[in-house]
Amino acid sequence: MRICGLIKTTLLDFPGKVACTVFLGGCNLRCPFCHNSEIAFSKKGDEVSEEEFFSFLAKRKSLLEGVCVTGGEPLTTDEIFDFLRKIKDMGFCVKIDTNGCFPERLQKVIESGYIDFVAMDIKNSLSKYEKTVGIENFDVTVIQKSIEIIKSSNIDYEFRTTVVKGLHTEADIEDLARIIPGENNYFLQGFKMSDRVPDKTLEEFTQREMKRMLNRIKTYVPDSQLRGV
């Protein structure tokens, strides 16, 4: 695995756990609002060897409860299975962040018991996916499959959408909410501009605008929440 970064302690990335977060390089999408574009789109990034990473975990076994595996997109390669197994065999709970583009691998890691929590980014309404992820002729059926796999699983999960002015409208978010009616674990996240974002023309929604969006989708997803606003 190409490990491009490591947050040694986090109380935010893994709900209910004291964890570390490991960033894996590479991604199949080209989202213009990506905050990790250097490791997702290219081979840049401070790489950590697997030996260094697992040595770190061994030293932190008494302090950490979990490991959040994020990216990039962790499920781009079959190498992920052995990587997750090694973490799990050390006694850690494992959370994986995914864009939902690899339902077969997602199904396999869930069935393997290698993960305890999955967070899936739903990028936009299905009709706007192509523009939002920067991929022409994007096949949205993989997203639908991954949503159903997660919903029918027995592990903890959440769905989330980073809302970006220039890519999302209130109507888009309402259409998206219709895909996941009644979900208890759906979050609208406010986009924050930074130097790492590829498209500098994008903008942030205001807190008032985000609250209005949230109220609009409550009909479909009553327990949806705002995050990072």
Short key terms for the protein model shown above:
229 residues, alpha/beta, TIM Barrel, 31% helix, globular
Structure characterization notes:
The protein is of the alpha/beta class. The protein has one domain: Aldolase class I (TIM Barrel). 31% of the residues lie in helices and 20% in strands. The chain is built from eight helices and eight strands. The protein has an eight-stranded mixed sheet with strand order 1-2-3-4-5-6-7-8, covered by helices on one side. A hairpin with an 8-residue loop joins β1 and β2. The longest helix is centred in the middle third of the chain and has 11 residues, at 79-89.
List the helices and strands and how they pair.
Blueprint: E1 3-10, E2 19-24, H1 37-41, H2 50-59, E3 66-70, H3 79-89, E4 93-98, H4 103-112, E5 117-121, H5 129-133, H6 141-151, E6 156-163, H7 170-177, E7 186-190, H8 207-217, E8 225-227
Parallel strand pairs: 2-3, 3-4, 4-5, 5-6, 6-7, 7-8
Antiparallel strand pairs: 1-2
Helix pairs in contact: 4-6, 7-8
In short:
The chain has 229 residues and is an alpha/beta fold. The protein has one domain: TIM Barrel. It has eight helices and eight strands; from the N terminus they run E-E-H-H-E-H-E-H-E-H-H-E-H-E-H-E.
Distance between the termini: 33 Å
Helix content: 25-40%
CATH topology: TIM Barrel
Strand order of the biggest β-sheet: 1-2-3-4-5-6-7-8
* Individual helix count: 8
Model regions low in confidence, pLDDT < 50 over at least 5 residues:
none
